[in-house]
Amino acid sequence: MLPVFQNAERTSNDNGASATQPAEGNPPVDPLLRVTGAGSDEPVNVSTIEASDSTFSDGSDLHEGKYFNTKKDLKRKLSDIAMKGNFEFRTRKSNRSLWVIECIDPNCSWRLRASKIVPESTKFVIRKYVGVQSCSLLNRNANHRHATYIVIGEQVTPQYVGVEKGPGPKGIQTFAHTELGAQISYYKAWRGRKHAHTLIKGSPEQSFHVLPSYFHMLEKLNPGTVTRIEVDGESRFKYLFLAFGVAIRGFRYMRKVVGIDGTFLKGQYRGVLLVATAQDGNGQCYPLAWGIVDSENEDAWSWFLTQLKEIIGDTDELALISDRAPSIKKAISTVFEKAHHGACAWHVAQNIKNKFKCADIMGSYWSAVNAYRCEDFTGYMIEISNRYPRIAEYLENEVGFEKWSRCHYPGLRYNITTTNMLESLNSMLVNARDFPYVALLDVIQEKMSKWWNDRRIVAMAITTPLTPSREFELRPRFAQSNGQHTSQLNPITYHVKGGELEGVVDIFNKTYTCKEFDIDKLPCVHAVAAVHHAQVSVYSLVSPYYTKEYYLLAYGETIYPVGSQSQWDVPNEVVTRIVLPREVKEKKRGRPKTSRFPSVGEFRKRKNHCGKCGAYGHSKKKCNSQTGSTEGNPPTNVPV
């Protein structure tokens, strides 16, 4: 291995002999240098080494006459070569048809000249190329100018194709160091990640421009799909609404309980993603409609619910479940005149914890929530009132029993007491909420297409009359019914005794004294005993919403993607529709926030950091380390 010498350049004396002279601005260098890494500690006279020994190739496959489709492609190629070789170049001349670059070291012979093939073409060809370098190591830098966020973003783009998240900024820093030999800052890695997303998902501004065409293709490929775009007087985006025709038609096979909620978006133009979802007979989310608005205010919710009303109607059978946000409450009362509004029991519980600071009453509260009979509910409320009178008053007067209690609810909400199904949807989109709007809707379409296909396959494989979850719930009741004493009162009513409760089962009207059968529409133990005595199929008492037939009909159709934009067939009046980005507040300095503020009563578990060993998961007081280290973590206070 030949040594490389720094701070020196070769000149020729009068006799033609090679001599070493100090480079301008650098101190003189002793011609006798000790070479390290050459297998010897003996001094070597620099003057004995030929000038050609200090030159080397940049290791690229470039050559004169090589073509590139665009000047941008050529620049990208040269930037890659420079980063991997840890050298830098500068531009001597550049215009639309010419690009001339050279090494930043004036004594280096590395240079390149490229120009267009013909003035009308975009293709560039290398006219002259000297790939031999003789520059000093002083001019080599891992933090060089060519490791821009654009170059980094283009390099990591393949790692984001077909995935939602991809590597974070720290992962990009590692990639740049190991694969490109470049040291980049966290901020540059963050910008590179953002640029990679733009290359794949498109820019936020482009997303607004293409939104009308995107919605047109969704409606064309998915008949019955409903889309809406609302703009202001200046054609700036306000709201959007999307409901797939497949989901609209499938809603007839769902229980008429719809949960509504919103979650904030993290992209450049922010906004709030609204969603309305039902629950299928197998207990899974069934998204009905999506919307994007500026914020969760009364106007935005009223607009979204108006669009929702057009596709699901407004009847006494319909139940709407949400948190207790005033904007949602006012919007529902304005838009839906017949539907019943219920509060999410989980959010009510969080409000109790936050307002009254007493979590020990939660057992009695949840028993009251899930009580089927008013007699049982009253007993739990008396228990709450005796211990915490203010909580009982809050639940009765401020919230209202009819909003959160199963037995007092005026409509039919079955066994759905919370909006947990919505929280799971929000968690599913946690990474996609950073995408431009069209890219976000693409992820939603892709997820829904997969769900419909997967659940259709499951439905076709079911061998029982009910969905798997309901069959699992009903089978133990059939075994327990053997211990019930049953006597017939008339052809449709039976007196059933067993356990702490006895009552009358009406197998025609599908009712029982315990009210569990009435509300859930799934036979309780006593109802199962009655039909067993009557020698009637227990499945005849089950709501059709829980059957395999309805489950298969709900997912019988397919949701189709829009495909590549180059393949779209969109009318000119749609293409030319103007949708401008909405105005956003001036960006605050510092790192953009990507996590929301906790809801009322919501607590986030903090991760303890040990001040002794530096590990996470325990405090300094509970640290078992004697040497300042714990298993899996390196020591931080071991003397060197």
In short:
By secondary structure, this protein is α+β, with helices and mostly antiparallel strands. The longest helix has 25 residues, at 437-461.
Describe how the helices and strands are arranged.
Elements: E1 8-12, E2 18-22, E3 32-34, E4 43-45, E5 56-57, E6 67-68, H1 71-85, E7 89-94, E8 98-103, E9 111-116, E10 124-130, E11 132-133, H2 149-156, H3 169-180, H4 186-201, H5 204-221, E12 226-231, E13 237-243, H6 245-250, E14 257-264, E15 272-279, E16 285-293, H7 298-312, E17 319-322, H8 326-335, E18 340-343, H9 345-356, H10 362-370, H11 374-387, H12 389-399, H13 401-404, H14 420-428, H15 437-461, H16 468-480, E19 485-490, E20 493-498, E21 501-506, E22 511-512, H17 516-520, H18 525-533, H19 548-554, H20 572-575
Parallel strand pairs: 14-17, 17-18
Antiparallel strand pairs: 1-2, 3-4, 5-11, 6-10, 7-8, 8-9, 9-10, 12-13, 13-16, 14-15, 15-16, 19-20, 20-21, 21-22
Helix pairs in contact: 2-4, 3-4, 7-8, 10-11, 11-12, 15-19
Describe the structure.
There is one protein chain. With 640 residues, the chain is α+β, with helices and mostly antiparallel strands. 35% of the residues lie in helices and 18% in strands. It has 20 helices and 22 strands. The strands form six sheets. The chain has a seven-stranded mixed β-sheet, with helices on both faces. Strand 8 and strand 9 form a beta hairpin. Helix 2 crosses helix 4. The protein is elongated, with a radius of gyration of 35 Å. The N terminus and C terminus are likely disordered.
Q: Could you name the ranges where pLDDT drops below 50 across 5 or more consecutive residues?
A: 1-54, 599-604, 627-640
Compute the separation of the termini in Å.
34 Å
What is the topology, as strand order, of the major beta sheet? 12-13-16-15-14-17-18
Radius of gyration: 35 Å
Shape: elongated
Average per-residue pLDDT, rounded, comes to 82
Q: Specify the structural class.
A: alpha+beta
Structure annotation, total helices: 20
